[in-house]
Write a structure and sequence with these properties.
Layout lengths: L34 H32 L15 H8 L1 H32 L5 H9 L6 H11 L5 H8 L14 H25 L4 H9 L4 H12 L1 H17 L2 H7 L11 H11 L3 H32 L1
């Protein structure tokens, strides 16, 4: 017979831990980089900065300073704003400035042409691979060769007027009429250089989200609406870049075509600032006046470029 209640078994007390107590992981404290790490980016960009400073900015400052000196008997002496006053009174320079205004007005067309062609290539129209090669081909040709070819094509008795004559249209003096010659030269320049802008646009299309185009197609948007509401806003920065580079090319890279096709004629109607600068420097031996014209051209490109970027940015925000 059991006289007492059963006692529960007694558990042995856990032995105390003698090792290190675990704790929550702590993020490593960021240690500031050494002075060499902080200096590394500046060291990497230093060669390029020095080249730009030595070959771009320093000559630019020298040219601006030289524009306030005289030519001929007053060579090296300060003349203030005399060179700029002479530029304002020179009919050829005023014609060159008016042609700059014409180029700026035609700039949207020069940008729209490669933009539309790049759009068609991106949408893979039939033969798009062939078109890509054909459109870029003129960009590798020398301006002298292009000018010589179009001198033959645009001659008064050339093939183009022969075609027009076959259609019952009177021949046009493309390079001899003062009201037409500048448009002919600009058209040739656009044809010869839009291949580079085409490549830039195609690179911009590589960043375009295809889902946006698919959504627009599902919604039944027409091609003009897709271009206006999808492609242009998505490529806003690419368009800004092409606008600025095309403008710079039109103002500073047409000398070869002008020299071969018109030599500034007829009656000075195709003068541009760069051709005027070459004439004053190379033929008239007036480097100070040429420096003043170069300074004016630089200011024009800077102002027009900033205005274009500002307008395009505002247009992008409005969209």
């Amino acid at each position: 017979m059991r006289t007492g209640s059963a006692q529960p078994p007694v558990r042995a007390a856990a032995a105390p831990r003698t090792g290190p107590v675990p704790h929550e992981p702590v993020a490593p404290r960021r240690v500031p980089g050494s002075w060499a790490e902080r200096l590394a980016p500046f060291v990497l960009i230093a060669p390029t900065a020095l080249v730009i400073l030595a070959l771009r900015l320093y000559p630019l400052l020298l040219g601006v300073n030289f524009s306030f000196t005289g030519d001929g008997e007053r060579n090296g002496t300060a003349v203030g704003l005399d060179n700029y006053r002479e530029l304002i009174g020179d009919p050829l320079f005023r014609t060159a400035l008016s042609n700059v205004g014409l180029l700026v007005a035609l700039l949207p067309i020069a940008v729209a042409i490669p933009g539309l062609l790049a759009t068609f290539i991106y949408l893979r129209v039939p033969g798009h691979r062939l078109y890509r090669s054909v459109y870029f081909f003129p960009a590798v040709l020398s301006p002298v060769i292009i000018g010589a070819i179009f001198n033959l094509l645009l001659a008064f008795d050339g093939p183009l007027n022969a075609v027009l004559g076959g259609l019952g249209i009177s021949p046009v003096d493309w390079l001899g009429d003062p009201d037409i010659a500048i448009f002919a030269v600009v058209g040739v320049h656009v044809w010869a250089t839009f291949g580079m802008a085409l490549v830039v646009f195609l690179a911009g299309f590589a960043t375009l989200d295809p889902a946006l185009l698919d959504a627009a197609r599902v919604d039944g948007a027409s091609l003009p609406r897709v271009i206006w509401h999808v492609i242009i806003p998505s490529l806003a920065r690419t368009i800004q870049f092409v606008f600025v580079t095309t403008m710079i090319g039109m103002l500073t890279s047409m000398f070869g075509l002008l020299f071969v096709m018109t030599s500034g004629g007829p009656e000075g109607s195709t003068y541009l600032p760069e051709y005027y600068i070459w004439t004053q420097q190379g033929q008239m031996n007036r480097p100070a006046l040429a420096s003043a014209a170069s300074t004016v051209l630089f200011v024009i490109m800077l102002v027009v470029g900033l205005l274009q970027v500002t307008l395009l940015q505002r247009a992008g925000k409005d969209d």
